[in-house]
TrEMBL record:
Membrane topology, as annotated: Multi-pass membrane protein
Protein name in UniProt: Glucose receptor Git3 N-terminal domain-containing protein
Key word Transmembrane helix present: yes
Alphabetized Gene3D superfamilies for the sequence: Rhodopsin 7-helix transmembrane proteins
GO biological process, one term: adenylate cyclase-activating G protein-coupled receptor signaling pathway
Principal location: membrane
Lineage, top ranks: Eukaryota, Fungi, Dikarya, Basidiomycota, Agaricomycotina
Transmembrane segments: 20-44, 65-85, 111-131, 138-160, 187-207, 252-271, 283-304
Protein location: Membrane
Keywords assigned: Membrane, Transmembrane, Transmembrane helix
Amino acid sequence: MDNSASPGDPDSLDFGTRVGMIFVVQAAAMSALAVSALLAYITYSAATIHRNASRRWSTDTHIHYYFLNLMVCDLMQAIGGLLNIKWISEARVYPSPTCTVQGLFKQVGDVGVALSTMAIALYTLQVLVFHFNSSPKFALVVLAVIWVITALLVAIPNAIQHGLYNPTGQWCWINERRSEQIGLEYLWMWIAAFLHIVVYVFLALVLKRVIIIDGHRLRWPRGGRERQRSFLSSTNYDPEPRRDEGIIAFQLLFYPAVYIIVVLPISAARFSSFNGNYVPFPVTAVADTLFALDGLLNVALYSLTRPKLIPRRPARDRTVILSPVTPGTQLARIYRTPILAPDLSWDPKAGRASSDYVWQGPLGSPDQRY
């Protein structure tokens, strides 16, 4: 059967539209390549390299599990974007098995990315602010919840109606019903964006001591002297930790910034469309191109700010583990720019997590505990 576009076909794609879709495909290809390369490297490191090798990867913390899940969902999201190649080549979008697969991969990838980033944000808050951790195996329970929610969001609508995924303009996605598009996908993306802003901005304020954690209470500093005292030092003012905290607080803001840059444009375009406004396709193409870069940006963001997630040479990485602030404890100074890696270890003998903070710098001495 010939599915090529014919003159006057309402589902046909003109030349300008296909050019815009090519940019989306290129962005999706970059994300797919980056995520696939990283997953292949992690798989190779975990499966073939011995435990004491110079480069290795393990699942010692919750973050490792959530990060792997994030990469898998990013890959599914990118594959959904790559399937636009079919519509570009045929200059037409039409119901087909490819259309169904594209809609499915887009929904599962988008929801999975949102839930995985929420899990990472909440775990970071739990560890750094509330000094509480659970066994890394508990992360498997969280991942099970993530995939159960995702499966229900896919299975229930498909069981109720036939043909949930249909052409929605330039590609295939959830059909044109606004309530389904919001409830089955965009709602979760918006919740994740809101949570990113709240959690990471709050963590930055805690590190800058704009907000004080006093036991189980939150309060404002009682005076300038208390605010000047370093979060990393409980007895004497030390300018090095203060400078380090400023850098870390700044790095924490990267997470909501990147997620908002990716999600806000496409959300704004869709929301405007939901309200009956005409959205020019170039606007949609730019927004969806940014959204398709999500995998590439996540690989870059987490590789730079949380290098412990990537297989590495321990001898060349500097890790300084800082004990939580307690009266009479002076913590070690960090002489190189640290990078946040809140990967607390689980102590099976004590039945609880060791409440240490892990900070990583680019180069230096082997791991040290204080």
